[in-house]
């Protein structure tokens, strides 16, 4: 049988042991049993329960503290940026716009204009900040308990806040990720962020970021900006007293700023020098000499407030929301890399300024605009939107809607060529009325039979309208839209002469399609957008699309080259480099245009007045401004040739023509006097005089220009005198005119198509009255 109790069991187990050892085991077993019974009795005693014991509450407090601490850390971490965000190098709520070479064009918010590497900063400056702000910077892990205690003691002794306990790492975390409110919660987040930053970044990275971002008063962010703002020198030229002055400002930039409180700044500087000596960064002699030095300021405006190319940067700010979400914009910290070429921009500004100063005075125009685009990718390389951005922020490149005049003829002739027409096809330049609309040439003269190429070269209005009648409104408008015209185009007869308003950017971009043999890229000025960490969040990816067949584009370039070589755009010629382009002048010379290109660049120029007042100038002034800019822009650029002119015979069209079916067409033969102008000798002399007027460059004197105009007014050349145009009452109408206006102008031929059918046929004198709104 098994033992009946534990003693019998023990006897059985130990029956083979010596008697003395058995006795010892029994005594030990009884003692353990007694102790265990006592403990159980105490726990279960009603007089002394366990929850009244000190050790219980001590253990509970420690465990609870650990749980609460971990919970608090978890709650703090939920509000902090993730690990990847800790690599941020710029503040929030900032936008920095850079040119293609990395130079800063504009900054918004608390941005650092000039960031420099730690190696570029002098040792005295780095040591001054370490001694002043965080003497144990290299020893702690983001939080310095000794520094906190020391600061508290010093503040109690002084009965004022004379020293802060925040480390450089804590200050950097506050600069990059936190607001400046004074709350316990913000301080806890600051401590936690400092610890995380120390885990992700090296000491050098932390110090470099801090010295580039810390606010140092007077609008200066970072030591490089401060060196410029207070002493007008680069950071590597700072003396010891100057470095100590700058290093003393972070605790209270407005209080210790030397330009506002020189005495307080001097006391703070001396304290920094004292700490530098204590830490062994300088000798007592150096400290004594620097302490006795006066603070000599040479103030300058903060570089971050400077704005380069303001018309372009304002355009970039308007474009940015198209590519970046509102939330990302609101958070800020963005760097926008643009396509602007600073060298070209300077050349563009110089060309516009020169034209306004010289030609603008006596030709009566006060504004000018210029834009240059790389047609191969659509990047904007230069943009001048007016005379003075400080006085008027209206951008005449992107915001001004003006009549393009004869520059629109490029789309009319391109449509005709694309339908299969031959540039040698002929038309008669003679008085012509279609549904009550009668175009007029400069000087009220006609040239008789001429081919399309010569008509484009001489910018003949009558032929341009007849060409559009053959190809139709719809194909012309559609091609212009495909090539880059975004403004509304109305199907009126005056469309052929450029009566529909467009802006300079879209017109220039559209002409770029000729330069790329029929490919069009969306014009844009932003290359990339980077976030605070330097990561690319958007990059330009505008694919080129085919808008015109290569053969037609090459033929158009061949025709437009002739405009520059032998026609109205002669002032735009460049030495040893092929140029193609088109001039344009709206009614009474209110708008003067030239859009020209080489294979690598397309540039557009507009001259005029914001109030739409007539000018005394000609499109030759715009062509000359183009020349002034391009002459500088092409320096060092390889010379590329345009493609050879394709064979003209046997071509098939890529666009289907949709001829306009007019209700009434009136043709009149040339008078004997007009026919005499077609004789070779007379015609040659006449064209030569006309060309001299149109090609006269702005370098010609005003007296010589006036003589050319006088000759033209007498001989009736291709360009009419601007003064003569202003004296005449010009009437233009198309199918959009109201019946009331048609009745008022019934004495002229410029009525709407509706009234023309019922009105009696006007006499030839009435038909010769000028009513065109656009010309060469």
TrEMBL record:
Domain Penicillin-binding protein transpeptidase: 369-625
Signal sequence bounds: none
Domain of life from the UniProt record: Bacteria
Chain intervals with Basic residues compositional bias: 648-661
Domain Glycosyl transferase family: 102-277
Record keywords: Carboxypeptidase, Glycosyltransferase, Hydrolase, Membrane, Multifunctional enzyme, Protease, Transferase, Transmembrane, Transmembrane helix
Annotated TM spans: 54-73
Polar residues compositional bias, start-end: 666-681
Location of region: Disordered: 644-776
Biased composition (Low complexity): 745-763
Record's catalysed reaction(s): Preferential cleavage: (Ac)2-L-Lys-D-Ala-|-D-Ala. Also transpeptidation of peptidyl-alanyl moieties that are N-acyl substituents of D-alanine; [GlcNAc-(1->4)-Mur2Ac(oyl-L-Ala-gamma-D-Glu-L-Lys-D-Ala-D-Ala)](n)-di-trans,octa-cis-undecaprenyl diphosphate + beta-D-GlcNAc-(1->4)-Mur2Ac(oyl-L-Ala-gamma-D-Glu-L-Lys-D-Ala-D-Ala)-di-trans,octa-cis-undecaprenyl diphosphate = [GlcNAc-(1->4)-Mur2Ac(oyl-L-Ala-gamma-D-Glu-L-Lys-D-Ala-D-Ala)](n+1)-di-trans,octa-cis-undecaprenyl diphosphate + di-trans,octa-cis-undecaprenyl diphosphate + H(+)
SUPFAM superfamilies reported for this sequence: beta-lactamase/transpeptidase-like (SSF56601), Lysozyme-like (SSF53955)
Pfam families linked to this entry: Transgly, Transpeptidase
Protein's UniProt name: Penicillin-binding protein 1A
Organism of origin: Nostoc parmelioides FACHB-3921
């Amino acid at each position: 049988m098994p033992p009946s109790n534990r003693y019998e069991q023990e006897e059985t187990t130990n029956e083979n042991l010596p008697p003395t050892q058995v006795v010892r085991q029994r005594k030990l077993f009884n003692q353990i049993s007694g102790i265990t019974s006592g403990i159980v009795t105490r726990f279960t005693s009603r007089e002394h329960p366990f929850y009244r014991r000190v050790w219980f509450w001590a253990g509970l407090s420690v465990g609870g503290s650990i749980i609460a601490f971990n919970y608090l850390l978890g709650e703090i971490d939920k509000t902090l940026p993730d690990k990847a965000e800790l690599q941020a190098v710029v503040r929030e709520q900032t936008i920095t716009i850079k040119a293609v070479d990395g130079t800063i064009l504009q900054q918004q918010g608390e941005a650092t204009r000039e960031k420099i590497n730690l190696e570029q900063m002098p040792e005295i400056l780095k040591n001054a900040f370490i001694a002043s702000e965080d003497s144990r910077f290299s020893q702690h892990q983001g939080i310095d308990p000794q520094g906190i205690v020391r600061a508290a003691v010093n503040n109690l002794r002084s009965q004022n806040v004379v020293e802060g306990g925040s480390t450089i790492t804590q200050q950097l975390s506050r600069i990059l990720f936190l607001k400046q409110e004074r709350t316990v919660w913000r301080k806890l987040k600051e401590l936690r962020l400092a610890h995380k930053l120390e885990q992700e970044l090296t000491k050098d990275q932390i110090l470099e970021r801090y010295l580039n971002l810390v606010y140092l008063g007077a609008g200066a962010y970072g030591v490089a900006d401060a060196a410029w703002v207070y002493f007008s020198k680069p950071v590597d030229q700072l003396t010891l007293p100057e470095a100590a002055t700058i290093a003393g400002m972070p605790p209270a930039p407005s209080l210790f700023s030397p330009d506002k409180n020189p005495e307080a700044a001097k006391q703070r500087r001396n304290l920094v020098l004292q700490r530098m000596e204590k830490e062994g960064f300088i000798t007592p002699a150096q400290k004594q000499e620097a302490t006795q030095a006066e603070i000599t300021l040479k103030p300058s405006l903060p570089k971050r407030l400077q704005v380069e190319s303001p018309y372009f940067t304002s355009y970039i700010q308007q474009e940015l929301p198209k590519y970046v979400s509102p939330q990302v914009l609101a958070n800020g910290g963005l760097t926008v890399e643009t396509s602007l070429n600073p060298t070209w921009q300077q050349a563009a500004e110089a060309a516009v300024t020169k034209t306004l100063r010289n030609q603008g005075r006596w030709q009566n125009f006060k504004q000018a605009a210029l834009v240059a685009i790389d047609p191969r990718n659509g990047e904007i390389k230069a943009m001048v939107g007016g005379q003075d951005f400080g006085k008027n922020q209206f951008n005449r490149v992107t915001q001004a809607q003006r009549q393009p005049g004869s520059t629109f003829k490029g789309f009319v002739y391109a449509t005709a060529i694309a339908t299969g027409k031959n540039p040698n096809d002929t038309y008669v330049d003679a008085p012509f009325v279609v549904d009550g609309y009668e175009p007029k040439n400069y000087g009220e003269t006609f040239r008789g039979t001429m081919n399309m190429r010569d008509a484009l070269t001489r910018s003949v209005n009558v032929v341009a309208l007849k060409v559009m009648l053959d190809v139709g409104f719809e194909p012309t408008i559609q091609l212009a839209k495909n090539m880059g015209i975004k403004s509304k185009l109305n199907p009126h007869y005056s469309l052929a002469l450029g009566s529909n308003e467009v802006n300079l950017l879209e017109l220039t971009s559209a002409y770029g399609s000729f330069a790329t043999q029929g490919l069009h890229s969306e014009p844009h000025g932003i290359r990339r957008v980077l976030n605070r960490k330097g990561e690319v969040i958007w990059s330009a990816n505008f694919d080129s699309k085919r808008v015109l067949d290569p053969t037609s584009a090459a033929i158009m370039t061949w025709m437009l080259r002739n405009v520059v070589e032998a026609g109205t755009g002669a002032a735009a010629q460049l030495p040893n480099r092929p140029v193609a382009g088109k001039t344009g002048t709206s009614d009474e010379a209110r708008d003067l245009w030239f859009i020209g290109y080489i294979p690598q660049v397309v540039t557009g120029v507009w001259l005029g007045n914001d109030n739409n007042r007539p000018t005394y100038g000609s499109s030759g002034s715009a062509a000359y401004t183009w020349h002034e800019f391009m002459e500088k822009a092409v320096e060092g650029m390889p010379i590329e040739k345009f493609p050879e002119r394709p064979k003209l015979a046997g071509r098939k069209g890529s666009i289907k023509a949709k001829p306009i079916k007019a209700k009434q067409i009136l043709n009149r033969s040339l008078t004997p006097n007009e026919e005499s102008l077609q004789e070779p000798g007379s015609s040659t002399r006449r064209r030569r005089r006309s060309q001299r007027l149109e090609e006269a460059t702005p370098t010609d004197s005003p007296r010589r220009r006036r003589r050319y105009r006088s000759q033209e007014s007498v001989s009736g050349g291709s360009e009419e005198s601007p003064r003569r145009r202003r004296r005449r009452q010009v009437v233009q109408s198309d199918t959009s005119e109201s019946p009331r206006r048609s009745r008022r102008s019934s004495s002229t031929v410029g009525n709407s198509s509706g009234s023309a059918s019922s009105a009696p046929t006007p006499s030839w004198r009435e038909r010769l009255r000028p009513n065109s709104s656009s010309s060469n």
